[in-house]
Design brief:
two-stranded antiparallel ribbon; mainly alpha; 3-stranded antiparallel β-sheet; 2 domains; Preprotein translocase SecY subunit
Length: about 425
């Protein structure tokens, strides 16, 4: 590990990619500080102070605090993610999109183009909705958030937020192509990590004032290390299904006959299920924040974090969406057909329908394990706050995203270092048949 870090400066291409990524992430964080026009910043901040536990808090987390300031990046990259998910769901229902998916690179480019169009439409609709919602918002003191409401403010705000999302989408694509890691994931990662310094400062302030005992802090630090290690283990865990390829004789050559395996990830759905589940659970609180209806506020109170009803429904939704999203993104029948097409088979299982049934059976079992793991990580913050009176938030969807993106980025860096070392080894050796 240390040798790999020391080797970063010796690989010019990797160094350029890392500096390029850091520069573009710095541009993103600067844009988060630029506010949209026509907003009373103090009134908006006081409104968000009473909107914890709503969809506004969830979206603000993914936008890196940009929504709370209503900056030009207030929508963040969520419209692009929503458009990508919608396209993935439509691939099951629309044969044309399913055919594009199977056409290789050309099909993926076409789907990416549709995703960009969808991002523009969604960001315009969401920006207009936010502008209309802002006009009805007031601070606890009764100060309106928008000084001059009307269609002029709505159109300017919608266009500003849409332009910010499109610019972020371009930033993400540039990071993916010229930087290191997945650009969209890195933008979300930067937004979440940007909150960590203030959280650390507040924690030490609580220790200094006596609100948090030092022994409890040491226990929590040890538990954090174990939780992060457990997430790393589960994100890398997979079930290997042995695959055997039959031998084929073509002329005087024999092809196939080797053994390999089909890796199935324990957590195939990733962080999508907790995002969907959180959105559904926060919806009543968001409506109650505007409607001010007694029965809606009662439902909102019953569905607050820490309440047994909330925890039970949250876990149920996560498990459901883990199965749902896995079924959408992974097709055992296609996998079985591909194996049969290339002469592969699972030992002891007939090719074709039997193979698809076996893969589906294994996938169903490991998805349950992955769903329980994701649900446990996501309810961990509520348990710490309600049972142990921990005065800060740790765990949940944000932690899954941060650890997952960090692991993927380090994997890409390691791949660059290995490639560089391999090239250096090959160049330094005399290999028969190599010229120049």
């Amino acid at each position: 590990m240390l040798k790999g870090v020391e080797g970063l400066g010796q690989v010019p291409e990797l160094r350029r990619r890392i500096l390029f990524t850091l520069a573009f992430l710095a541009i993103y964080r600067i844009g988060v500080q630029i506010p949209a026009p026509g907003i009373d910043a103090e009134a908006l901040a006081s409104f968000f102070a009473r909107s914890q536990g709503t969809l506004f808090g969830l979206f603000d987390m993914f936008s890196g605090g940009a929504l709370k300031r209503l900056s030009i990046f207030a929508l963040g990259i969520m419209p692009y993610i929503s458009a990508s998910i919608i396209l993935q769901l439509l691939q099951v229902a629309i044969p044309h999109l399913e055919q594009l998916k199977k056409e290789g690179e050309a099909g993926r480019k076409k789907i990416s183009q549709y995703t960009r169009y969808g991002t523009v439409g969604l960001s315009m609709i969401q920006g207009l909705g936010i502008a209309i919602g802002l006009e009805s918002m007031t601070s606890p003191a009764g100060i309106p958030v928008v000084a001059m409401p009307g269609w002029g403010f709505r159109l300017i705000t919608a266009l500003t937020l849409m332009s910010g999302t499109i610019f972020l989408m371009w930033l993400g694509e540039q990071i993916t192509e010229r930087g290191i890691g997945n650009g969209i994931s890195m933008i979300i990662f930067a937004g979440i990590v940007a909150r960590m310094p203030s959280a650390v400062i507040n924690t030490f302030r609580l220790v200094k004032t006596g609100d948090l005992h030092p022994a409890l802090l040491l226990f929590l630090l040890a538990m954090m290390v174990l939780v992060v290690a457990f997430i790393c283990f589960m994100e890398r865990a997979h079930r290997r299904i042995p695959i055997q390829y039959a031998r084929r004789v073509v002329g005087r050559r024999v092809y196939g006959g080797q053994s390999t395996h089909l890796p199935l990830k324990i957590n195939t759905a990733g962080v999508i299920p907790p995002i969907f589940a959180s959105s559904i659970m926060m919806f009543p609180a968001t409506i109650a924040n505007f409607a001010r209806v007694s029965w809606m506020e009662s439902i909102s109170q019953a569905l607050r974090p820490g309440n047994p009803i909330y925890e039970g429904l949250f876990i149920a939704f996560i498990i459901f969406f883990c199965y749902f999203y896995t079924a959408i993104t992974f097709n055992p029948s296609d996998m079985a057909d591909n194996l049969k097409k290339y002469g592969g088979y699972i030992p002891g299982i007939r090719p074709g329908r039997r193979t698809a049934e076996y893969i589906d059976k294994v996938l169903t079992r490991i998805t349950l394990i992955g769903a329980i793991y994701v649900a446990g990580i996501c309810v961990l913050p509520d348990i710490l706050i309600s049972k142990l009176n921990v005065p800060f938030y740790f765990g949940g969807t944000a932690l899954l995203i941060v650890v997952g993106v960090a692991m993927d980025t380090m994997g890409q860096i390691e791949s660059h270092l290995i490639t560089r070392s391999y090239d250096g080894f090959v160049k330094g050796a005399r290999i028969k048949g190599r010229r120049g």
